[in-house]
Each structure stands twice: as structure tokens, then as C-alpha cells.
Write a structure and sequence with these properties.
The protein is an alpha+beta fold. The protein contains two helices and nine strands; from the N terminus they run ααβββββββββ.
Length: 159
């Protein structure tokens, strides 16, 4: 009986959770895991900063539309962008997500001359050497029309 009591107490002691240790482990691992996306976002942002000259091609068209993408840092440190067409409209974009060499961003509502409607454009792009290569999809806010296309941009002049 004494041996059973000792065995039960030993098992109970082994299963006892040390909440202070568990908290320390969780606290230590939490920021390290959470900071990985921030490092990726910072790395991509640092590589994007500046003005990029681009050519966009709407799906089914071989005629290039020229525009610039200007990336800068907001006062809070986040990445902000501005798209300006030649000639034409300019609008801001916000970053939705980033990866090691990828970025997804979405425009503020703006007028699409092709769709003749207010649209929001979602762009997925990746850094390839000194180029930013991607695809876009502009969705009309009413009516359900969409416009897809692709683009290539180079830092500075000459896309």
C-alpha cells in the first residue's frame, strides 16, 4: 500500500505543470515566430523603396500602358505606394501582404477608363532581380465587370 501511495504521488508530481515555466517558454517563442513576417515585410519594403517605371498589358491586348509605382515609408514605418499613369490618374495603394520576395497590394477606389467604372485593383507581384513582375485584377464596384492584366516594372527609368 505504501508503495502504491509513493507511486501515485510520484506520478502526480511528474504531471504537475509549472505555469511559470510554460509562460516563459510561450513568451520567448511568441515574438520570434511573430517577427518573421515583419522581417520579410521589412526586407521586401527596403528593396521596393523608390520609383519604378512600368508597362502594363490588359488581358488580350499587346498595347502597353505606361505608369510609375512610387514606394515610400509612412510615418508609422509601413510601406505606402502610389500608382501614376501616363497620362492619367494617380491613386494610392496599400500593402495587403508580403513574403520573402512577393507583395500583394490593393488600390483605393479609382476610375478605370477601360471599364468606365470605379474599381479597386488587387495586384500580386514578385521581385525578380532588378524587376517587379506581376498580375493585376481591377474589379468594378458595381456591375461585376473585371479587367485582368500583367505588368513589369524596373527601378528608375526604362521598364
Amino acid at each position: 500500500m505504501r508503495y502504491l501511495l509513493c507511486a501515485a504521488l510520484t506520478l502526480a508530481a511528474c504531471e504537475r505543470r509549472d505555469t511559470a515555466r510554460d509562460t516563459l517558454v510561450t513568451d520567448t517563442l511568441g515574438p520570434a515566430v511573430d517577427s518573421a513576417p515583419e522581417r520579410a515585410a521589412t526586407a521586401v519594403a527596403d528593396r521596393l523603396l523608390g520609383t519604378w517605371t512600368a508597362r502594363g498589358y490588359d488581358e488580350g491586348s499587346s498595347r502597353a500602358q505606361q505608369f510609375t509605382i512610387t514606394w515610400s515609408r509612412a510615418p508609422d514605418g509601413s510601406l505606402t505606394g502610389n500608382i501614376a499613369f501616363k497620362p492619367g490618374e494617380a491613386y494610392d495603394v496599400k500593402v495587403v501582404s508580403t513574403g520573402d520576395s512577393t507583395i500583394v497590394y490593393e488600390s483605393e477606389p479609382h476610375r478605370s477608363p477601360t471599364l468606365n467604372a470605379q474599381v479597386v485593383t488587387r495586384t500580386e507581384a514578385r521581385l525578380v532581380g532588378d524587376s517587379l513582375v506581376g498580375t493585376y485584377q481591377a474589379k468594378a464596384q458595381t456591375g461585376g465587370k473585371t479587367l485582368k492584366g500583367r505588368f513589369i516594372a524596373k527601378r528608375g527609368s526604362g521598364a
